[in-house]
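Hi R.,

Here's the chain you asked about this morning:
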Amino acid sequence: MLQLFLLACLSLVATASADCTRDFLKNATDAYLLAQSGTRSALAPAIANNFTYTENNIPMSISNGIISKNLKIDHNLSIFDTTACSTFTEIIVTNPAKPCVITTRMVFNNSRVTTMESVVTTNSDWAFK
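And here is the predicted structure, written out as tokens:
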């Protein structure tokens, strides 16, 4: 009887950790925005071992991407998909010296980000013509 109870408890824990709530996705997005603003440690605990980062469809290390730059974010908008356990975030930086628009899609599995895909546009790109 005890074994059955423990198995039921473990099943509940596994189900609870697999749930992808709006609050979880919002908190993860907030950590991403903090990381993009200069607090890199905010995102570090959420990165999975099999993490993949691409920027403008080019695989690279997260330490070499736009996320490694401290940006003053003037506007952001995020969409949360609890079914796919993913987010989409748009960031707008209006710094006259280096304006940019960044869109980032993050995909999560077991409460860890497994995929981060960013598209970065600046002065001579489509959003600035």
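One quick note: The chain has one domain: 18-128.

Cheers,
M.
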